[in-house]
Each structure stands twice: as C-alpha cells, then as structure tokens.
Amino acid sequence: MYAVVAQVSIPSGKEDEAIEYLQSTVVPRVKQAPGVAAGYWVEPKDGHGQGIIVFESEDAAKTAREMAMQQPGPVTFDSIEVREVIANI
Length: 89
Hints:
Mean pLDDT: 96
Low-confidence stretches: none
CATH topology: Alpha-Beta Plaits
Structural class: alpha+beta
Strand order of the largest sheet: 2-3-1-4
Strand content: 35-45%
Number of domains: 1
C-alpha cells in the first residue's frame, strides 16, 4: 500500500470554508478514486491541515497526487508526497 501525505496552509479566517470544501468536494472525489483504501484528515491547527489517503498501489497514489495538485480550493499545499505504508493496524 501507498499513501498520499498532504500538508496544507489555510488562510486566516478561511478555516470553516476549507472544512466545508473538504467535506463537500474533496472527500466525495477521493471516495471515487481508483484503488483508494482509506482517507483521514485531521482538524486544522494554527492555519495548517494534514491528510493521509491510503491506496492499494503506488500508481494509484501517484495519480491521486497529481489530480490533487491540479484542483483549485481554499488551501495551499505545503507538501504532498507519495510514501510507502510500512506498517498498519
């Protein structure tokens, strides 16, 4: 398995907009992505958010990463990487 690990910056005062966009747009798109196994996003703190989306293959993760980088939205990616999952429970 491979994960897309994303760190984002959220403009001050746009936290609620970013969460709404995540829930209404990002999550439904991710659910439809080929090879997706799981996705987790954590509460933003100090203008930054994080998400980890797990895919069944490296190719699926790389494709999702490229698609995410092209999507407009109320956040800016600080980093978005594909990493191999080396352990899970």
